[in-house]
Known about the structure:
The structure is a single chain. This protein is α+β, with helices and mostly antiparallel strands. It has 2 domains: 4-27 and 108-185, Orthogonal Bundle (Topoisomerase I, Chain A, domain 4), CATH 1.10.132.20; 36-103, Gyrase A, domain 2 (2-Layer Sandwich), CATH 3.30.1360.40. 59% of the residues lie in helices and 14% in strands. A 4-stranded antiparallel beta sheet has the order 3-4-6-5. The protein has a two-stranded antiparallel ribbon with strand order 1-2. β5 (94-95) and β6 (100-103) form a beta hairpin. α1 (4-27) runs antiparallel to α4 (109-146). The chain starts with a helix and ends with a helix. 24% of the residues are buried.
Amino acid sequence: METTDDILLDAEEKMEKSMEFLHEQFAGIRTGKASPALVENVQVPYYGTPTRLKELAGISTPEPRLIVIKPYDPSALGEMEKAILAANLGVTPMNDGRLIRVPIPELDEERRGELTKVARRMTEEARVAVRNVRREANDRIKALEKGSTITEDDRKEALAEVQKLTDQHVTRFDETLAKKEAEIMEV
């Protein structure tokens, strides 16, 4: 038998997953600084299997504007280079036969604006996901009341809790977006 506590826990878990997903997406947005997160999830065809770059190579940032990729299997170097180019990250990898260097160019004002828009769109998608979780939880709570499992007061209290969770997550999304925008605009 489902309880309002079960519904609230489930909703909170799903909202947290939206938060984690937003953080992962933001890690892939290039700022002026080098970050292994920019390339680590690039899919590289390795012996016919799409594999994440971080599983095929050591990725480091020895300088603020340079990513160095040292493959565990040097024969995959060419495929890694092609995959980074194909990922359309706005960077040009340089392959010296042993490792790949990825210099991170300065962002111009126009590109900063575009990246800010991308971050805002990702945040809005996360907000929509949380609102969908809220709607689903509200429907489940109302069904419990209809089935006479909970009272009207319990329903009101549970709906208020769901709204509180939603508001908390939306606020966190906005804070995360503000930090990312500041990072993008930082020269």
